Amino acid sequence: MNKVLRRQKLTKKYSSRFLIYLILFLFVFIFAFPFYYVFVLSSLDDSEIFTSPPRLFFGTHILENWRILFEQINFGRNFLNSVGIATLSTLFTIFFCTLGGYAFAKYSFKGKKILFTFVLTTLAIPPFLNIIPFFRMMVAFGWYNTWLPLIVPGVANAFGIFLMTQFIGRAVPDEMLEAARIDGFGELGILFRIVFPLAAPGISVLGTITFIGSWNNFLGALILLPKIERTTIPVALSSLRSQSGGGFGAIYIGTALALLPLIIVFLSFSKKIINDFARGSIKG
Amino acid sequence: MLRDGQDIMGSLKSRQRLLPYLFISPFFILFAIFGLYPIGYSVYISFFRWGLTGPSEFMGLRNYGLLFTTDPFFLKSLLNTLILLVTGSLLQHFFAIPLAILLNNQKLKFRHLFRATYFLPFITSTVSIVIIFTQLFDHNFGWINHVLTTLFGIEPIKWFSDPPAIKGALSIMLNWKYIGWNTIIYLAGLQNISPNYYEAARIDGAGTLRQHISITLPLLLPIIFFTITLSIIGGMQIVDEVFVLLGGFEGLGGPQNAGLTTAFYLLYTAFSAGRLGKGAAIAWLLFVVIILMTLINRLVTSRLENR
Amino acid sequence: MGGIMVLLIGCPRQEQGEVAPYDPDQEYTITIGGYGDLERAYSVVVNSAGFKAAFPNITIEFQTSDFNGHHQRLTTIIAAGEETNDIEALEVGFIALFVEGGGLRDLSLSPFNGNEITPQLVPFAVSNATTTEGQLVAMPVDIAPAVFFYREEVVKASGVSIEEIENIRDWNHFIEIGRKLTRDTDGDGEIDQWAIPHASDASLIPLNGGKGGWFDSNNNPLEPAEAFKGSLELVQEIRNAGIDADLGAWSGPWIESFKNGAVAGNMIGAWFGGALKTWIAPEVTDWRVAYLPGKVAASVGGTYLTLPNSSNSQRAAAAWEVIKYLAASPESQLIVFREIDAYPALIEVYEDPVMQEGVDYFGGQQTRLIYADVAQSIPEKTVTPHDSIAASIWGNAVSLVINEETNINEAYDLAKEQILASIE
User: Alpha-carbon distance B24 to B26, whole Å?
Assistant: First the structure.
C-alpha cells in the first residue's frame, strides 16, 4: 500500500519534471531558431533561400556569398566603424549613467524626486520625428559625417540612468559608503574605488544593451554617415538589398557576420552578464 | 575626536549638496543641447499645416482636434495599439513569470543554456529576421500553419490578410522578441526573495501554485511595475514589426487597418504622406497616452501593494 | 536657449540659390543617392568610354541604400532643408510626396531647359514627372511597361493555346482562361496550379496606365467612379473565380511559384524578366511574354532622377549634365538595360538593333518589341500632391474586397471618404 503510493508519487514527480524540461526546451527552440536560421540562410544561394518548404540545414554557397559580400562592400572597414562607434558609446554611456544613477540612488538633494520623474518622463517621448531637427543641428554643429552624433547625445540617457539608479540602490550598501567617508575617502575616491566596482554587474548589463542598440542603429547611421566608407554594417548591408538582382545570400552572410561579435560577446559573458543582470536588476 | 567627525560631516554636507547635481548634470546638459530643440521644434510644427518643405498655414490646435473628429485612422490606430499592448506586450509577462520561476530552481540542469538562449531574440534585430518570419507565417506553406493543420486540424490561417490574424501575427512576433528579456529580469527579482518565506508557507501546507500566488507575485510586484512600465513605453511605439510583416507604407496596416498602430500611422503621416505637422500632433497625443497608461500602471501597482 | 530655438526654428531654409552654370573645364564630384541596383548599373555607365570622353572632368560617387531606407533618408534631409546628394533617384510613387511645397527643382527652367530633351522620352513617363501646374520635377531614366509573363508548357498542358494566351481579349476572357489554368495537375484532389500569384496584381493595371490617376482635374478623388469600381470588381472576381494562388509578393512561396509551376503567369513590369533570368528561375526554359488582356498598356515601377531644391547650387548644372547623359544618351540607356533589365525611357533606343534581337531566356522571343510597344501606348497622367495618401488607402480598399468580400460600392465609398478626410 505504502509502496504503491510512493511509486505513484515518484512517477508524478518524474513526469512533471519531464514536462518542465519539455517546456523549457520548447522555448529554447522557439527563441534560438530564427537566430540559427540566419546562419543557414547565409549558406544558401538566392533560389535556395526562397523555397517551400524552407531549407532547414546548411547549404554549400557560403564561400560564394562571402565573395559577393566582400566584392560589393568594404565589409572590414564598415565592421571597424561599427565596432568603434558601439565601443565608444558603450564606454561613455557606462560612465555617465553610473554617475547619474549613483547620484539618484545614494544622495538626497533638493528636487531629486522631480528631477528623477523628469528623466523618466523623457523616456516616453516618441523619438520618431526628432530625427529631422536633430539632423539640422548636427549639420549646424559640423558633426555631419562624423561619429559624434551617434555617440555623444546618448551617453547620459534616461534608460541607463533609470537602470543604474535601481541597481546601485541595492548593490551598494549605505553602510559601506558611510564607512568609506569616515575612513577619509574623498567623494571621487568613493566613486571610483567603491561604486564602480560594486556596480560592475549592472554596468555589464547596461553595456550589453548599449552595445546592441548602437550596433543595430540603422536610421541614424544611414542619415548621418552618408559616405559608404564611414558608415556602419547595417547601412552597408542595406546597400546590397535589391529585388531584381538577388544577392540575398550575401546580405545574410553579412547579417550573420554582424551578429557574430554580439554572439561571441554575449555567449562568453552570458553566464556572467545574466548573473550580473540578476543581481543588478531592479527592486522598485 | 567628536569635533573632527563633525567637521568631516559638515564639509561633507556642503560637498554633498553640489556633487549629486554635478553627477546628474550630463543628462540635463545633453538634454538641453540635443533634446530641447527637437522637442520644441515638434511642438511648434504641430500647430501648423507643415509639409516636407515648411509651413503653409497656422492651424492652432486643429491638427490635434481633427485627429479626433475627421481623421479616418487615428482612433482606429489607437485602438489597435491598445489591443496589441495587451496581446503583444502585456501577455508576454504571463509567459515570462512562470518561466523565470522554473529557471530559478538551482537544481535545474542546463539553466545557463536556457538563460543564454532566451536572451537571443533581443540581440537579433527585427529587420534581419524578415525572411524567416514571412516564411513562418506564410499561409500556404508556412510552418506555423503546417503545425496547426496537421496537429490540430485547424484551417490554414491567413496571417497577412485576415484582420484578427494580422494582430495575432504581430503579437506572436512581439512575444517572441521580449519574453526572454522579461524572463531574465524576473529571474533577477526572484533571486532576491528569501527561501524562508516559502518554508513558512510549506509548513502551513500551501501547494506550489498557492505559494507562488500568495508569496512570489506580491514580492515581485515592484519588478512587475518596472517591466510593465517598459512594456507600455515600448509597446505603444511598435513600428518595426508592422513595417516588416505588412510590407512598408504601401497599405495602412492591411485589411480593415488591422495592423495599423499609432506609431506606424505617425511615421506614415510624416514620411510617406509628408505631413510633418500632423505627424508631430500624433506624436504628442501618443506621448500623453503613454503617460496616462504609466500612471494607471502606477496606480494599480500601489493599490495591489497596499492590499 | 529659447532665443536659439526660435532662431533655429524660424531660420530661413536653404533657398534655392542661383544655379551656377556648368563649366566643362572645372572638376566636379557629383554624388548620386540611389537604391537597389542603380549603383551597379550606373557605375558601368560612368566607367564607360563614352561617359569618360563626354565628362573627363566629372567624378561620380554613390550613396546606395535599400528602397525604404533611401526614401526615408531623402525625406528627412529634404524636410530638414539640408543639402542632399547632387542627384537623388526616386521611385515614381514618391515623386508626388516631394512635389508638394516644392522640394524638387523645376527642370523645365533655365539653365536646365529640360523640355528640350523630354520629347525624346516616352511621353507617359514625362507626364508622370510633371505636375498639374506644368513643372517638370524629375527625369525618367527607366520605365516598367507591364506585360503578362506566362509559361508556355504549363499553358499548353492546361489546354489553352498559345494563340489564345497571346491574344486575351479582355478581363472576362482573362478570367475564363484563368479558370483553365487553375487546376489539379497531379490528381490528388487539391488544386496545385493557378493562373496568377495574387488577385491584387490586377488592381492598378486598368487605372490610367497603372498610375492610378487618383485625382481628377477638379481634385476629386477616385473619379470616374466606374473605372475605380471596375478595378475593385475585377480583383474581387479574380479572387472569387479562385484563379489566383494568394501568394504575397516577394515571399518565399511567391518566388518559388515561378519555378515549380504553381503559377502559370504573372502580370508585372518588364524588369521582372531580368529577375526571372538571373536568380528567380534561371533553370526554367518556358517563360514567355504576352500583352496584358485587351492589350491594356500600363507601367509598374520606373526610376526617376531629380535635383532637390536643397542640393548644392554650384554643382546643380553639372549634375543636370549627368542626368541628361543617363536619361537621353542611347549608350547609357542600353548599358543600364543590359545590366539590370531596366527598360529604357529614351524612344530612339527602341529602334536599336538590340531591341529586335530574340532573347534566349524567352526561347528567342522578341520580347523587347512588346515592351517598346506597350511603353509607347501608356496613357499620360500627371502627378498630384496627395497621390501617395490615395494610393495607400486604395491599397487597403483592394485588400478589403479581396479578403473580406466587402461590397464594391461600400469599399469604394469608404476609400473615397477616407481620402477626402485625410487630405483635409
Answer: 6
Give which of A12, A21, A24 to mutate to test B binding, by max B Cβ within 10 Å: A24
- Using CB atoms, which residue from C36, C66, C251 is nearest to A244? C36
Chain centre to alpha carbon of residue A81:
17
Q: Please indicate if any CB of chain C lies within 8 Å of the CB of A229.
A: no
- Chain C, 69-88: which have a CB under 8 Å from a chain B CB? 71-72, 75-76, 78-79, 81
The pLDDT tens digits of the residues spanning A239-269 come to 887 666 667 888 888 888 888 888 776 766 5
End-to-end alpha carbon distance in chain C = 35
Would you write out chain B's pLDDT as a tens digit for each of its 307 residues?
A: 344 444 444 555 666 678 899 999 999 999 999 999 999 999 999 999 888 888 888 988 999 999 999 899 999 999 999 999 999 999 999 999 999 988 888 788 888 788 888 888 888 777 677 767 877 888 877 788 888 888 888 888 988 888 999 999 999 999 999 998 888 878 877 876 777 778 877 888 777 888 888 888 888 887 888 789 889 999 999 888 888 788 777 778 888 899 999 999 999 998 888 889 999 999 999 999 999 999 999 899 888 888 7
Q: What percent of chain C has pLDDT over 70?
A: 96
Distance CA B212, CA B214 (A): 6
CA A276 – CA A172 distance, rounded (Å): 14
* Preferred mutation among A238, A243, A251, A255 to probe C, highest tally of C CBs within 10 A: A243
Q: Identify all chain B residues contacting C102, using CB atoms and an 8 Å cutoff.
A: 53
| Beta carbons within 8 Å of C236's beta carbon, 6+ residues apart | C199, C401, C402, C405, C408
Q: Is B187 helix (H, G, I), strand (E, B) or coil?
A: helix
Instruction: Report the distance separating Cα C110 and Cα C116, nearest Å.
Output: 11
| Residue C81 backbone class (left: φ over 0; alpha: ψ -120 to 50; beta: rest) | left
Which of B15, B127, B239 shows the shortest C-beta gap to A187? Answer: B15
Residues B283 and B43: beta-carbon distance below 8 Å: no
B162 to C248: CB separation less than 8 angstroms, yes or no? no
Comparing alpha-carbon positions, the chain C residue that sits nearest to A225 is C63
In Å, how far is A36's CA from the nearest CA of chain C? 18
**Residue C424 and residue C421: Cα distance in Å, rounded?**
5
The C-alpha atoms of residue C103 and residue C120 are separated, in whole angstroms, by: 26
Please tell me the distance from the alpha carbon of residue B47 to that of residue B63, in angstroms, as a whole number.
Answer: 7
The ipTM is 0.87
The three cell numbers locating residue B13 = 554636507
Nearest CB neighbour to B20, from listed A23, A103, A155: A103
**Which residues in chain B have their CB less than 8 angstroms from residue C100's CB?**
51-53, 274
* Beta strands in chain B, from DSSP E residues, in sequence order: 48-51, 54-58
* Continuous segment of H or E residues that includes residue C63: strand C58-65
Distance from CA of A32 to the nearest CA of B (A): 6
In angstroms, how far is CA A197 from the centroid of its own chain?
Answer: 21
Q: How far apart are CA B44 and CA B280, in angstroms?
A: 9
**Is the pLDDT higher at B175 or at A6?**
B175
Can you say whether the dihedral through the CA atoms of B116, B117, B119, B123 is positive or negative? positive
Residues of chain B in contact with residue A216, where contact means CB-CB under 8 angstroms, are 125
Which chain A residues touch B29 with a CB distance below 8 Å?
A: 156
Intra-chain end-to-end CA distance of chain A, in Å: 51
Which grid cell sits at C272? 521582372
Q: Would you list which residues of chain C are within 8 Å, Cβ to Cβ, of chain A?
A: 8, 33, 35-37, 39-40, 62-67, 69, 72-73, 76-77, 79-83, 85, 250-256, 259, 271-272, 274-275, 278-282, 340-341
Which run of H or E residues covers position C58? strand C58-65
